[in-house]
Amino acid sequence: MSLQNRLINIQAQQFLPANQVILNADRDLYQAKLAQLNIISNRSNPAQEEADRQENIQQVAERYAQYRQYLQDFPEIAGDPAIFDLAYQNWGTASNAFGSRRWQQLFH
Q1: Is 107's pLDDT higher than 60?
Q2: Which of 24, 72, 81, 102 is the most exposed place for a label (fewest CB within 10 A)?
Q3: How many CA atoms lie within 13 Å of 32's alpha carbon, on the beta-carbon side?
Q4: Distance between CA 61 and CA 67 in Å, rounded?
Q5: Angle 16-41/81-107 helices, nearest 10 degrees?
Q6: pTM, two decimal places
Q7: Confidence check: pLDDT of 108 > 60
Q8: 82, 80, 84, 91: which is closest to 56 by C-alpha?
C-alpha cells in the first residue's frame, strides 16, 4: 500500500471518527448544561431534565473514551487524558452539587 493510501485510510478510519465522537461529546456537554438551565428556570419537567442531564454527563465520558480509542496510535494528538479526567470530574461535581441544591428548593 502506498504512503498516500495509508494516510487516507488513517484519516478515514481514525481521525474522522474521532472528530465525530468528540463533536458529539461537545454536544452532550451542551445538552447537559441546557437541561440544567431548564431545571433552574423550571421550564419543563425537572425529573425528565435531570434524567437527560445525567444521561448526557455519562455520554460525554463514553464518547471521550471512544475518541481516545480512535487516536490511540497518536497520543500527541489525543492529549493527556488526566487533563480531561480532572476537568470532567470538577465539572461533574459542580454540576451535581448545583443540581442537588436546586432539587431541594423545588421539592422541599
Answers
A1: no
A2: 72
A3: 23
A4: 10
A5: 20
A6: 0.85
A7: no
A8: 91
For residue 44, give the DSSP letter: S
Q: Are the C-beta atoms of residues 45 and 6 closer than 8 Å to each other?
A: no
What's the chain's length in residues?
108
Give the cell for residue 38.
431548564
Three cell numbers, residue 23: 463533536
What 3-state class would DSSP assign to 75? Answer: helix
Contact 83, 77 (CB under 8 A): no
57-74 residue pLDDT tens: 999 999 999 999 999 999
User: What separation in angstroms does the CA of 6 have from each of 2, 3, 14, 70, 108?
Assistant: 6, 5, 12, 16, 61
What is the grid cell recorded at 81? 487524558
| Cβ atoms of residues 20 and 64 within 8 Å | no
Give the Cα separation of 57 and 47 in Å (integer).
15
